[in-house]
Hints:
With 195 residues, the chain is of the alpha+beta class. The chain has 2 helices and 12 strands, in the order αββββαββββββββ. It has one domain (2-193): endopeptidase fold (from Nostoc punctiforme), CATH 3.90.1720.
Amino acid sequence: MKKRLLIFLIFCLTGFVIYKVTKKINLNFNYEVGQHLDSLNNVVVYYNGGVDNSSGRNTSSDNYNIGIKYQCVEFVKRYYYEHLNHKMPDAYGHAKDFYDKDLSDGELNKKRNLVQYKNGSKSKPKPDDLVVFSGSTFNKYGHVAIVSSVDDDEIEIIQQNPGPFGKSRDKIKLKSIDGLWTLDNDRLLGWLRKE
């Protein structure tokens, strides 16, 4: 019985180590870390490799913390800084921390100095909105992206670090139910907007 338990523990530990290592390395040999993949309004999306890969911290010339290269947070903060001339008062935090669950729909998120809307809002998402996804079993930090376009029944997002085989652009179904706009994704918490 002890031998089986030991084998089981070794198997679990080995699986955990492999899982952690593969989140840091580049498994997609078609791209190199830091390679230009896409852009929106002249703000570039870079390839990150493994989702937990870190290529150092990106700061602006005036020492504003943009984020860890080439994580999702780094892209959205760089987008807001370069395209919208916006600095967030709280320049740190994981992706899921961008959304404050204690705020009402349409209230100012003071940490980000952006108006926050919940998924199920009277306000329809707009281009340049920052969308926030909750954490998951395999990504406890959550995810953030920028709305690149809005149609009647879907939005398109642009994102950095969706995984080594993920795409920089993705579409999410948009529904209007009883006057409330909802994005059809169970992990999507809401969106933030510079007004």
